[in-house]
Design goal:
The chain has four domains: 9-18 and 555-729, no CATH class; 34-158, no CATH class; 162-242, 2-Layer Sandwich (Alpha-Beta Plaits), CATH 3.30.70; 261-552, Rossmann fold (3-Layer(aba) Sandwich). With 741 residues, it is of the alpha+beta class. Helix 7 (308-323) links the parallel strand 14 and strand 15. It contains 16 helices and 31 strands. Helix 7 (308-323) runs parallel beside helix 11. It is globular, with a radius of gyration of 27 Å. Residues 308-544 form the Peptidase S8/S53 domain. GO terms for molecular function: serine-type endopeptidase activity. It comes from Melittangium boletus DSM 14713. Pfam families: Peptidase_S8 (PF00082). This is Peptidase S8.
């Protein structure tokens, strides 16, 4: 008789119920009363107005100027956004950025004098700033005027805010990337005003492609390096930096010194002929041995010739999606899905640093082919992420993935051996996408570790856990074997370029095995949930090493049950998600692990408020219970299930950013007496441009929960019995899928 397999229990969302919101706290602490706030800020507003008046008019499109309002760190929550103050003065919010400040008055329990805060970019005609400076000393604190108490400082952006990554050895005419506040809808005339400003400076320049995403406009600019500081004088210029290079043949894969080794290609397949994967890379060779499973799709605008290294890279990435790492002398496993390979850049794109053009080809395909559910990106700009400015690639890919209907794996980059102090070892765009699964590389040792070349975290906050995880990507001693152009011969390579598609292959295996009941967000949650971290640094390996044995992910062993929730949350609502346990309760020691994932719209003009959705998650070990010292509490006691990730530098930074992360994961241990019908109460917070919004839509989410109780070996069966008709085992579809790779 075949051994019974306890497959993943699905439809946990059938258990969810709406609940009333918890009771609020007391009045808000204020660092300054209104009189002190007015006294502090009046001379600063006057200084800003005077500085604006002294600057040449060409720097201001339609005489509009941009200034920075620094919030006091106690007022970062969206409910404290100073919208009333902005309306009172007639200021328009055009963005924000994270900053560190030393407030004159520290919040209660502050552990440092330097605290994370948000600086708001506000725009208005110069005359508005002048009128504010004249009126502020006479304010009495009515209506929006009272929100002045939330402001720590006001100033104009300086060169240190705008100019990025210009080294002393970079000289002559160069290609730059300029980021402007606003777009044609929100700030008409900004781009034309920038061209007029450059002409007024009498510079030799050439404006290239212009791309709008969210509340920003990205512009390619050819000009002399020596004029950067003058270029940065344009008021609506948010940032300027050298245009990053495309990662040609990236990650910088090193061919193995080993001789090519034989292997066998499978016959037949793919396992699920309905599954399609879009791979965006450097091209696919004609007459490849992998042609039976790969469709080489010609992309408009790519006229060739393709670079040989790019084509070799594209072949290797496709091989990794189809088979994972090959094994010498063995037959490759059947591919789970066929690949549509899009060669999106050629030698011309490399020579012209056409970062925008390559991205536009990716965007066009994904917009025209919404049927793709699986995507791999092992390419992007060769630059580390920075906290203050969201890269165009990141903003665009996150926008395309906001529905949660696509699982995209993104290589973290191969800059892991770069300078740590300068941040050059950090993940590279679009690896900081909050809606993608970012994959780094590790070795294959028993005591595994991050591969030295693999770029690592932290990412930006929110989205600070990047990469999401790691998987084998090859080392010099143990290379990642991929198909070569020669039939039956594999060659070795290394790079996160191959780790990312390998991780995608594992997700495809789950989908092929259990069918379309597993939505992309659920696959992402399962990948993170089953990752092995141990005591390794979360900044280096994310949530851990992804599991490559599908049996371990999709089935439960003795004393274990894994449950999947998939659904939608409504803005402002409170939803209770019960954690299934037997009717008889639990025995002995209990381990709970839980992983939440959601997808969201984003605001690239607001890095610190980048995600438009966040979850307040209240874990209640006993849904009806009160603690002994609070028997009259109005709701059941809560427990902080999701602890502070170590990559958050301060408790204050955690408080403001953690709930806006799109992935949350934790493992906790309890005694049986501590758990009596435990639940997660989840509140969906919606925001836009850092402030409350009434226009948010429903939020797609996935939750994976694993209950382990070694003293109850029939735990799975007891849970199935209690929730019969609600939970359902997700058994394999009729296609026979190998679960071990």
């Amino acid at each position: 008789m075949a051994e019974k397999r306890n497959f993943l229990l699905g439809y946990g969302e059938r258990l969810q119920v709406e609940v009333s919101p918890p009771h609020g706290g007391g009045p808000k602490w204020k660092p300054y009363d209104f009189l002190r706030a007015k006294t502090r800020l009046s001379p600063r507003v006057a200084r800003v107005a005077q500085e604006l008046a002294d600057m040449p008019g060409d720097a201001f499109p339609n005489d509009q100027a941009v200034a920075l309002l620094t919030l006091h760190p106690a007022f970062l929550a969206k409910s404290y956004f100073p919208g009333g103050l902005l309306r009172e003065v007639n200021l328009q919010i055009v963005g924000s950025k994270p900053a560190v400040t030393k407030p004159e008055v520290l919040p209660k329990r502050a552990k440092s004098k330097e605290l994370v805060t948000s600086e708001l970019y506000v725009a208005a005609p110069r005359e508005v700033f002048l009128r504010w400076a004249e009126a502020l000393p006479r304010w009495g604190g009515a209506r929006g005027e009272a929100e002045l108490e939330r402001i720590e400082d006001i100033r104009l952006p300086g060169l240190s805010d705008k100019v990025r990554h210009f080294s002393d050895d970079l000289q002559g005419d160069i290609l730059m990337e300029v980021v402007l506040h606003g777009n044609s809808a929100t700030s008409p005339g900004v781009v034309d005003g920038f061209a007029k400003y450059l002409k007024a400076l009498k510079l030799k320049f050439e404006l290239g492609r212009k791309v709008q995403v969210g509340g920003l406009t990205y512009v390619a600019l050819h000009a002399a390096r020596k004029f950067v500081t003058r270029i940065a004088g344009y008021s609506f210029l948010r940032a300027v930096r050298p245009m990053p290079q495309l990662r040609h043949a990236w990650p910088k894969a090193k061919a193995s010194k080993a001789v090519q080794v034989p292997f066998q290609l499978p016959t037949g397949g793919p396992v699920d002929p309905l599954l399609k994967v879009a791979v965006f890379d450097g091209g696919f060779p004609a007459k490849s041995p992998l042609a039976p499973w790969v469709n080489d799709v010609k992309v408009p605008g790519v006229s060739g010739p393709m670079h040989p290294d790019l084509v070799k890279h594209g072949l290797a990435v496709s091989s990794a999606v189809l088979f994972g790492p090959l094994k010498a002398g063995e037959m490759a496993p059947l591919p789970y899905a066929a690949v549509d390979h899009y060669g999106v850049f050629d030698q011309k794109a490399l020579a012209e640093q056409d970062v925008y053009g390559v991205l536009e080809r990716v965007r066009t395909v994904l917009q025209q082919r919404p049927d793709y559910r699986f995507v791999n990106l092992s390419l992007g700009p060769e630059t580390p992420v920075i906290d203050e400015v969201v890269d165009l690639w990141t903003a665009t890919i996150d926008e395309l993935l906001a529905s949660g209907s696509v699982l995209a794996t993104v290589a973290s980059g191969n800059g892991g051996e770069g300078d740590l102090e300068s941040g050059n070892a950090r993940v590279q765009p679009p690896a900081d996408c909050v809606n993608a699964l970012t994959v780094g590389a590790c070795d294959n040792a028993k005591k595994w570790a991050r591969a030295p070349y693999s770029s690592f975290g932290p990412g930006r906050a929110p989205g600070i856990i990047k990469p999401d995880g790691v998987i084998f990507g090859g080392t010099d001693q143990d290379p990642f074997l991929v198909s070569s152009m020669k039939l039956g011969l594999a060659s070795g390579t290394t790079g996160t370029s191959f780790a990312a598609p390998y991780a995608l292959r594992m997700a495809l295996g789950m989908r092929a095995m259990l069918g379309d009941v597993l939505q992309p967000l659920a696959l992402k949650a399962l990948m993170v949930h089953c990752a092995e971290q141990g005591r390794r640094n979360v900044a280096e390996v994310g949530w851990g090493r992804f599991e490559t044995d599908l049996e371990q992910v999709l089935t439960s062993g003795p004393g274990e049950a894994r449950v999947l929730f998939q659904g939608h949350l409504e803005p402002g609502g409170y939803m209770r998600l019960p954690i299934p346990i037997p009717a008889e309760g639990l025995q002995g020691k209990v381990e709970l692990s839980a992983t939440f994932c959601f997808a969201t719209l984003t605001d690239p003009q607001d890095p610190l408020a980048y995600t438009r959705a966040g979850l307040d998650i209240y874990f209640r070990p006993n849904k009806d219970g009160r603690s002994a010292d609070r028997p009259d509490a109005q709701e059941a006691e809560t427990d902080g299930f999701f602890k502070k990730p170590k990559v958050y530098k301060t408790e204050q930074e955690l408080l403001e950013s953690h709930k806006w992360d799109t992935t949350r994961h934790a493992v906790r241990r309890f005694r049986q007496a501590d758990l009596l019908d435990p639940v997660f109460d989840v509140h969906y917070n919606a925001r836009a441009a850092g402030q409350a919004t009434q226009t948010a839509g429903s939020l797609p989410y996935a939750l994976v929960v694993t209950i382990r109780c070694v003293d109850l070996p029939n735990l799975y069966d007891l849970i199935v019995q209690r929730y019969r008709g609600q939970l359902q085992a997700l058994t394999p579809v009729t296609v026979q899928v190998p679960v071990r790779t």
